[in-house]
Amino acid sequence: MSRVLVAMSGGVDSSLAAALLVEAGHEVVGVTMKTFCYSDTPSHGKTCCGLDGIMDARRVADTLGVPHYVFDVEEEFTRDVIDDFVAEYARGRTPNPCVRCNSNTKFRDLLARGEALGCDQIATGHYVRVAHEASGSYLLRGTDPGKDQSYFLWGLPESMLPKLLFPVGELTKDEVRERARTLTLATADKPESQEICFVPTGDYRDLLVKRLGTVHPALEPGPLVRADGTVLGEHGGYAGFTVGQRKGLGGGFQEPMFVLEIRPETREVVVGTREELHSDRVTIGELNWHGGAPAPGDRVDVQLRYRAPVVGATVVERDRSLVLELHEGRPAVTPGQSAVVFDGERVLGGGRIDHATSGITSGANA
Amino acid sequence: MDPVYLDHAATSPVRDEVFDAMVPFLAGHFGNPSSTHRWGRAARVALDESRARVAAALGARADEIFFVRGGTESDNLAVIGGHAALSAGGPAGVAVSEIEHSAVLEPAARIETEGRGRATHLSVDPAGDIDLGALEAACSREPTLASVMLANNETGMVLPLSGVIEVAQRHGAVVHTDVCQALGKIPIDLRTLDVDLLSATGHKINGPKGAGLLFVRRGARVEPLLHGGSQERGLRPGTEDVAGAVGLATAVELAVAEQEEHHRALTELRDRLESGLRPRLPGMRVNGADAVRAPHVVSIGLASITDGAALLMALDLEGIAVSGGSACHSGSARASHVISALYGADDRYATIRFSFGRSTTVEDIDRAIEIVPTVVERLSPTEVTA
Predict the structure, then answer these.
(1) A285: burial class by Cβ within 10 Å (0-12, 13-18, 19+)?
(2) Taking CA atoms, what residue in B is nearest to A119?
(3) Tens digits of per-residue pLDDT, B274-317?
(4) Considering B205, B234, B257, which residue would you say is the last residue of a domain?
(5) What pTM does this model have?
(6) How many structural domains compose chain B?
């Protein structure tokens, strides 16, 4: 059996992934990636985020009788994920750092280290499946529709796919917990992590203030306007807003108001009604495909947010960007989020949303 | 195949004699040496005897030996406490070699950053020569505590202490030396080695962890770091670890008695490893090769390796237990402060430190010679062939 590198975060999913591979007879090497350090003072440099995760992963590895190592990827993670996260908010967009991490840091670093450690394959605890066929490998949605994480993995370089294993992709979360309990893994009943791993306070604006300084335009007050330019008031800094957001706009409107668009050049936050929030034409960039890009005229399924339902779309243009015409308008299509393209269960690839427009209004997100 | 442990400079297994000596003091003779009753008296006798045995082995007097909880504590006590005592009479500084253990470097840095005195760093070159001019300048400027280790933990390099002592004594400076790595490998006799303070620890010489000692020559002064008891004559308050002291004494006694023979055996192992690896690892650098070295460490630098942390993991998976610069640095891809001090901050060699002990065999060495080059080759970027 082959030697497999398993990325163990200290959560139940990757714990069970490691356990299943051990059961299957693989030689498992467990690793935890140390991505981020909360503390600023060098003398406390060892008290890091993920420290609990590292300890839990180490315990599980010990229970399974497999080696466990810590990969210090703090530098790479800061450069590729946190810097991008901050830059995207500064540009008035809403980044998805988990997509960025999977596409640009986690798997790349795992693969490089895995090769160094003589591992033939890489496994994680993602709820996603991978099909290895003679014609090539491709990703499929996880079996548990409530947990499916394929949305986060469209950015994986295609060349990596043949090396990947996702042992929990065919299980439901309940099954994962149950099997972890049966195996008496220490992490069997560990709660899900929800927040962004590098935002310790739970409020990303704290991080922006720390990284951008309080005088950055993204954090300074600006006008709150309607799509037609009518000024409604002032907001406290556009980085605090995301498209579709209702909270924090103040009251006194005739009907519920939502953020439609953020215009960093003028620091305007554009608001409008639920109806105005819908878009039916989406342009996506930073494209990545598994098994070839769809061509103009192709009908695909596209998912525009994590956990959002897919919507049918037709490819209308393909250059360095891809333009999709949605078969029905979707609310809050947000620049910076991912548009993931599917053919049924199969992940075809995707990109980052650059802008979305609507036939109904002229509210173009620049 | 059984894995091979070549990391004795990180820590070593407790030897049978030490283990057997300690056991009676863990449960049976468990008394507190400060107690008046028979339990206390039995413990007190064992503690006194241990002190006398350590003193005899090192050429010291019993009242010059203080038991502490390991090498790091001993170094901290010597540097911070020694400097504090020196400062009682006015401003004083510290002077440390750049390749000291962090347990010396960081206390020295704190003394400076906290405004308690100047810290002078003495450069060391790969041949082991230390900047005595800088030491001279520091010592002639103000009362100084000089701390220079006898053998370096990462490379095994032996520093020329006699030169340091000569300069220091001319200016009335206090000299501390850390012999955690040197003890048992090279001769140490405090009747001839004229230092004021000396730090040693048990677990590098097949003794227990958490048991160390500070030698304070009669007349030298050290302020305590902890307060709240008269144990160790107030220099290290806290109920004594009698089993630890007994174990430490046994380990020190045996290490000193066997030092010459051990040196011979270790040198053979070292030469075998170096000559075995050299033809199979082209471009390998032996760190500190031109210096006098303690025989239990071989530190090699490899230009072809960019990820030193991965190298250690890969070797572990193949059953070879070694470390990078030192155990404290494993997991970090950065060059250690020792390698940076010797070869420059932009040195790009990855380090593997092999270190041997009593249980190391020729077969262990041959396994390393066989396995290490194959792993190194796997981790080295393949040359592009057109």
Answers:
(1) middle
(2) B314
(3) 999 999 999 899 999 999 999 999 999 999 998 888 999 999 99
(4) B257
(5) 0.89
(6) 2
